[in-house]
């Protein structure tokens, strides 16, 4: 866990809500200077409260659904703004009593003592495009749910499912679906669902045109680089581009993999690893995108396909573990590609695995017991899903190898 280091004399913690915010401002020694509630989130009134301290002030608020406006307002007022990570923050401070006044004071204390786990303040200029991309993803998931309901209707009446639901032109499939139903009420219900599917198709196509055009204008190079990775098309590449943001905010590839939910944290005691945790800490869109890319990349018959087969054999036929390891490899490649501005090299993706297979006596990563045991030539050692290990990643964290 990383912490924000405050360098200002005055620190302000804000317990933010939809219609009000409780403000606590204190100096470096912990003396409370302002502690009051601001109704209707009146930022101008807030500036009057902190006016005597604005010259050397840091503002901190917990990450919640309505923090965008506060971050933008502080930026416009030339105030330092820190976004506190909500899940990490809950693990740090606790108590028997909890209310807005106590929470704002605790935020201020954590800020002045450099114990705030910071979140990423996504640039305001890119938020609209990211919102459009997430809206498209939501529309696609809703359309898939409607199509699944239509196919479930066929199965409920012991009819064969009709092919063609995922094609661009669904009119033959829709006509065949309605013809197979004789009941007028069911026909009316099917027509309603088909109409909604058609509306989703139109909106998704419009979003595709807008997103592709804007992305080529704002980040043409990185967008083209990402599409050289097997499994990444125009939509998955755009998802990675807007969800990652500035790749420089990840100092190491390990930080990037953790943010993508591709590795888990460990629970250790007395020098032994007892288990894993933190599977839901990170960006769910990136985890979904790399998982989809790994499945699609396996269609490559030259490099990625054979690599996926070897990974699956190494993991005892477990496709989920093999797909996770492949997703980690693709994520590492994406990290170094964006950092260096180079295209995808499939040979560098499979080289570490080939070297490891040529040295069967190499030492393997520790198991959950914390022991490191040598590997025999004919012994297959399974990997823990989602954990970061030299065998499950490409290259080392300190060297830009793909």
Textual characterization of the structure:
With 402 residues, the protein is α/β, with parallel strands linked by helices. The protein has 3 domains: 10-112, ATPase, nucleotide binding domain (Nucleotidyltransferase, domain 5); 127-218; 234-358, no CATH class. Helix content is 49%, strand content 11%. It contains 14 helices and 7 strands. It has helices at residues 43-49, 68-76, 86-92, 100-112, 127-156, 171-179, 184-218, 220-226, 234-244, 253-259, 284-297, 304-314, 319-340, 346-358, and strands at residues 10-16, 20-27, 32-39, 57-62, 80-84, 265-269, 272-277. The strands form 2 sheets. The chain has a 5-stranded mixed sheet with strand order 3-2-1-4-5. α8 (220-226) packs across α9 (234-244). The radius of gyration is 26 Å and the shape is globular. The two termini are 26 Å apart. 28% of the residues are buried. The model is unreliable at 363-402 (pLDDT under 50).
Task: Give the arrangement of secondary structure elements.
Blueprint: E1 10-16, E2 20-27, E3 32-39, H1 43-49, E4 57-62, H2 68-76, E5 80-84, H3 86-92, H4 100-112, H5 127-156, H6 171-179, H7 184-218, H8 220-226, H9 234-244, H10 253-259, E6 265-269, E7 272-277, H11 284-297, H12 304-314, H13 319-340, H14 346-358
Parallel strand pairs: 1-4, 4-5
Antiparallel strand pairs: 1-2, 2-3, 6-7
Count of spatially separate domains: 3
Strand-pairing-aware structural class: alpha/beta
Please state how the strands of the largest beta sheet are arranged side by side.
Answer: 3-2-1-4-5
Radius of gyration: 26 Å
Q: Total helix count?
A: 14
Give the SSE string: EEEHEHEHHHHHHHHEEHHHH
- Beta-strand level of the residues, as a percent range? 5-15%
């Amino acid at each position: 866990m990383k912490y924000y280091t405050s360098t200002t004399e005055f620190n302000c913690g804000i317990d933010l809500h939809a219609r009000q915010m409780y403000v606590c401002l204190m100096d470096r020694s912990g003396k409370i200077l302002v502690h009051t509630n601001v109704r209707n989130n009146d930022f101008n009134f807030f500036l009057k409260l902190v006016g005597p301290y604005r010259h050397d002030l840091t503002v901190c608020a917990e990450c919640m659904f309505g923090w965008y406006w506060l971050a933008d307002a502080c930026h416009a007022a030339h105030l330092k703004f820190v976004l506190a990570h909500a899940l990490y923050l809950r693990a740090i401070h606790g108590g028997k009593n909890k209310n807005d006044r106590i929470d704002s004071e605790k935020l201020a204390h954590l800020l002045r003592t450099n114990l705030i786990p910071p979140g990423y303040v996504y640039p305001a200029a890119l938020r609209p495009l990211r919102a459009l991309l997430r809206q498209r993803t939501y529309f696609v998931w809703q359309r898939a749910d409607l199509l699944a309901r239509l196919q479930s209707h066929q199965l409920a009446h012991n009819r064969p499912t009709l092919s063609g639901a995922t094609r661009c032109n669904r009119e033959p499939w829709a006509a065949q679906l309605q013809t197979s139903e004789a009941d007028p009420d069911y026909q009316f219900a099917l027509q309603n669902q088909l109409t909604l599917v058609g509306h989703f198709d139109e909106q998704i196509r419009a979003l595709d045109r807008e997103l592709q055009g804007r992305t080529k204008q704002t980040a043409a190079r990185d967008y083209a680089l990402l599409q050289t990775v097997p499994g990444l098309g125009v939509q998955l590449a755009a998802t990675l581009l807007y969800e990652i943001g500035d790749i420089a905010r990840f100092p190491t590839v390990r930080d990037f993999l953790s943010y993508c939910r591709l590795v888990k944290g460990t629970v250790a005691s007395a020098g032994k690893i007892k288990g894993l945790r933190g599977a839901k800490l990170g960006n769910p869109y990136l985890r979904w995108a790399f998982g989809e890319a790994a499945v699609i990349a396996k269609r490559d018959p030259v490099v990625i396909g054979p690599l996926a087969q070897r990974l699956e054999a190494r993991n005892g036929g477990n496709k989920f573990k093999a797909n996770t390891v492949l997703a980690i490899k693709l994520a590492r490649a994406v990290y170094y590609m964006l950092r260096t501005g180079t295209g995808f090299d499939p040979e560098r993706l499979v080289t570490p695995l080939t070297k490891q297979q040529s040295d069967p006596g190499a030492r393997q990563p520790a198991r959950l017991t914390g022991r490191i045991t040598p590997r025999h030539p004919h012994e297959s050692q399974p990997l823990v899903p989602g954990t970061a290990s030299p065998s499950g990643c490409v290259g080392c964290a300190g060297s830009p190898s793909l």
